[in-house]
Amino acid sequence: MGKRIVVPFGPQHPVLPEPIHLDLVLEDERVIEAIPSIGYIHRGLESLVTKRDYKNYVFVAERICGICSFIHSSGYCQGIEAVMEIDVPLRAQYLRVFWSELSRMHSHLLWLGCYADSFGFENLFMNAWRIRESVLDIMEETSGGRVIQGSCKVGGVRRDVSNTRLREIVRSLETIETQITELTEVFLNDSTVMHRTKGVGVLSESDAWKLGAAGPTLRGSGIKSDIRTTGYGAYEFLKMKPVVHHGGDCYARCMVRADELHSSIDLIRQVSDQIPDTEIEVKVTGGPNGEYFSRVEQPRGEAVHYVKGDGSKNLVRHRVRTPTCANIPPLLTMLAGCDLSDVPVIVLSIDPCISCTER
Amino acid sequence: MSYITKSPWIIHYDASSCNGCDIEVLASLTPLYDVERFGIINTGNPKHADIFLITGSVNEQNKEIVQNIYAQMPEPKVVVAIGICASSGGVFRECYNVMGGVDKVIPVDVYVLGCAARPESIIDGVVKGLAVLEERQTALKEGRSIERKVVEVNRSAGKAESANESEVSL
Question: CA B36, A194, A323, A239 torsion: positive or negative?
């Protein structure tokens, strides 16, 4: 047995866009244990709910995280709408799916890039982000914002996208789809990449279930769980199959995300075919009285928004349970026993979003 | 516009921002905006960096890390606060756990506004920072000291309101 040493990983680390701190207990080159400490991004934004009008709070809810921003705001609005029993017009629900799926695409492409960077493949990082820019262009054109959209509101959405424009977007997505296929080809079939990801950071099916993993981390371990299949919003009318792979390693999690890019494009195609011509918002009066758990599927997994109101303009409580928070215990299991050089790849493989986790 | 002869290297740290500005910082390095073609490299080592890009309004836990990174950077150095949160606290300024701006902790030279700040404005902020960097380089060569306005925060109160300002030369 070698001598044990502790290597600090983070909070400021080139592979991490956001700060998280891990104390890695090493024996020679092998990680024995990883001890996390969080709190570097904690702002305490849930408490703002008592200071802001529940309609204005949508902007704060959107800024829980800048990557899954639209899905956070739609999850919050969905909760308020359920409490107040508002019938959201169908067109608004379809548009929410449209922007949610674009968010998922940009998030997964961002992740593929950062993931490539984590094993030192700089060129692949640049290519993934180049494709991501074309998704962001669509986002900016339709909603007005690149990463923070502000297009969701209680009772509907702020902007409409014309049917002709939707069809044009679907056509431009075909080009993006070819580029994505070329890109994921490298992630899934290149022998150097496979060497760094196959069999690394294995999370068994039973561990994933027991430790409560969420999203691609859970689906990469062979468990079929996707909140979109519960049919919230317009997902009720759309056909989708959750992407499941069985490896449980970094490679399987990468495969899940690569396939989800295609399923997102397919969902956007269905939206453009089926979208009905109705209003995009309803007028909302009064204050929410009651409580509701709203569940949405984020790029990183299931997010739960709990809202509780007492009939006044301010809510009493807003609580978010985010996917990365659920994925940290599985991450610690993956890290135990791995090589020090694989730590960045494994940490990135759960797609950590610390802003969501700490709020 | 400055005529600096060597490419500046940047270091980026997220001090409790929502991530939006951070991914825009990274986006300005990637093919569409591509500042790397000018030799600007995102380094992970504070000792190699000239420009400190910092996002978010800084909370109590990462205050020391921000000060630590800043202290490790060699002179001349420039701090660019990115996004409205880093400038004034923005939408989070009334939250209980934020200091309300990077300038409560370290001296800031350039403020880039926006929520999230666009890559164009981030690049513009860095270019503005280059002028400051050049001026400090000449100052160092001529043996002058670099004047910076440092804002100190009353630690026991920990609140932005109780900040007292003082002029210090570093």
Answer: positive
**Looking at this predicted complex, what is its ipTM?**
0.81
For the stretch A264-304, pLDDT in tens is 999 999 998 888 888 888 888 888 888 899 999 889 888 89
**Would you place residue B164 in the very low, low, confident or very high pLDDT band (cuts 50, 70, 90)?**
very low
Residue whose pair of structure tokens reads 């949405």 in the numeric block: A296
Q: Six-digit token pair at A39?
A: 């709190």
- The residue ranking higher by pLDDT, A106 or B2, is A106
Task: Give the gap in angstroms from C-alpha A84 to the nearest C-alpha of chain B.
Answer: 26
**Chain A contact for B17 (CB, 8 A cutoff):** yes
- Interchain proximity B16–A147, CB inside 8 Å: no
Q: Which of A13, A63, A133 sits opposite B32 (nearest CB)?
A: A133
* Residues 6 or more apart in contact with residue A163 via CB below 8 angstroms: A272, A275, A277
Q: What domains sit in chain A, N to C, each tagged with a CATH number?
A: 4-358 (1.10.645.10)
CATH number for the segment(s) B9-160: 3.40.50.12280
* Residues forming a β-bridge with B9: B41
The pair of three-digit structure tokens given for residue A142, joined into one six-digit string? 């339709």
Q: Does B98 touch chain A (CB under 8 A)?
A: yes
Band of pLDDT at residue A109, cut at 50, 70 and 90: very high
- HSE (side-chain half, CA atoms, 13 Å) at A188: 16
CB contact under 8 A, A39 and B61: yes
The tens digit of pLDDT for each residue in A117-174 reads: 888 888 888 899 989 999 999 988 898 888 888 888 888 888 888 888 888 999 999 9
Scanning every residue of chain B, which has its alpha carbon at the shortest distance from the alpha carbon of A134?
B32
Across the interface, of A44, A126, A148, the residue whose CB is closest to B116 is A148
B23 near A CB under 8 A: yes
